[in-house]
Design brief:
Strand content: 5-15%
Radius of gyration: 25 Å
Helix content: 40-55%
Structural class: alpha/beta
Number of domains: 2
Largest sheet: 5 strands, mixed
Mean pLDDT: 87
Distance between the termini: 50 Å
Number of strands: 7
């Protein structure tokens, strides 16, 4: 198939429409639940009040805004693919934004700006202090302002929709790779995403990875769960051809989320048993480098150790009972293992590291 044929084939997979819509229409659709901005996404998008104020200022000044990308579901509801933060800001300012529990979020209070200093302390409505309320004239100005909708129609290929979301929410985005995956998974299979979150709340897992607040805020704990699910049982052939790890994880977890036959219970049991062994044996030192001279673990969480220890134990846990002494000895010897030290150095990227460290973990924890 030549390039032209490939282009034509893929263009047919995405059917789109588009037209300008007033902010009043966007508000109406949201209130009627004809527009799903996925409140569970809101914690992944971190605009400050200053950024939110800048958006409202832009609308008031008549500065054109980028289109909102939406995907039309089978039930006719529009899923917001790109533009969640813009719509959330508008809805919060109008006092109608709700959270995951369907409870209203505190309305937005604006800051003064360089061009509109009088915006300071302004709200959409304020019965107690009418002087801080946006005038009806300016409310109408906002409501009549237009933001175009780019609609991916329901006839489009599902995979194409998710690809579009990923393309629009990476690059210059503030989202971490896993936060983008989380949004994708919610769109594909919300119960599966909730199942992933329950794994990330496993106490032995939490205590053994011992992450600081920042990585958890960026969903790195869920990324470790995703890595565990995919890489602990990945075929040898796939390990060798893993390529870009981020794309590999996204593709594989999307396939799993769509797989109705995926063995959730069995995977959860392996996950729980693996981290029970790890924490009972090593505690919160599990994924910290062992210093043989000082005879203790030091530093922070190392992904390379996770790739050897957690994935190696998981691969072997169903076949044999791993005694704590054996696990401890293997982990302590890793720091002097030439294969581990060679492929875990800072100059080795993940696509080169994983084909070496995953088989290493499987081999050293294998029952002899």
């Amino acid at each position: 198939m030549n390039l032209l044929d490939q282009v034509n084939k893929k263009r047919k997979e995405i059917k789109t429409d588009g037209y300008p819509m007033s902010i009043s229409e966007w508000i109406s659709m949201y209130e009627k639940k004809e527009l799903d901005i996925h409140p569970e996404f809101q914690r992944f998008f971190r605009w400050s009040n200053t950024q939110k104020t800048s958006l409202i200022e832009s609308i008031l000044l008549g500065i054109p805004l980028p289109p909102i990308f939406v995907s039309q579901r089978e039930d006719g509801v529009w899923d917001v693919v790109d533009g969640l933060q813009r719509l959330s800001t508008i809805f919060q300012f109008a006092g109608i934004l709700v959270n995951e529990e369907d409870k209203k979020i505190v309305p937005l209070v604006l800051h003064g700006t360089k061009y509109l200093p009088a915006l300071n302390n302004i709200q959409w409505e304020n019965e107690k202090n009418p002087q801080n309320e946006l005038s009806k004239e300016l409310q109408l100005l906002i409501k009549r302002s237009k933001i175009s909708a780019s609609i991916v129609l329901k006839e489009s290929d599902k995979t194409a929709k998710y690809d579009l979301f990923q393309r629009l929410n990476t690059g210059g985005s503030e989202l971490s790779p896993q936060e983008v995956r989380n949004c994708l998974l919610v769109m594909i299979n919300r119960p599966f995403f909730e199942w992933l979150k329950t794994l990330s709340k496993n106490k032995s897992f939490i205590d053994s990875i011992a992450l600081s607040d920042r990585p958890i805020e960026e969903s790195y704990d869920i990324e470790l769960v995703v890595r565990f699910i995919i890489l602990s049982q990945v075929d040898k052939e796939d390990i060798i051809n893993i390529g870009d790890v981020g794309e590999f994880l996204t593709d594989r977890i999307s396939v799993i989320a769509n797989d109705l036959k995926f063995k959730l219970i069995a995977v959860k049991e392996i996950f729980a048993e693996t981290f029970s062994i790890i924490y009972e044996t090593l505690g919160d030192d599990a994924f910290k480098r062992y210093n043989p001279l000082k005879q203790y673990h030091e530093g922070g969480f190392l992904l390379s150790l996770f790739e050897v220890i957690a994935l190696g134990i998981a691969y072997n846990v169903s076949a044999n009972t791993l005694c704590p002494k054996k696990v401890r000895n293997i982990v302590q010897r890793l720091s002097s293992n030439p294969e581990y030290t060679k492929w875990s150095s800072s100059g080795v990227n993940a696509s080169r590291r994983l084909p070496k460290l995953i088989p290493l973990g499987r081999a050293i924890f294998e029952k002899k």
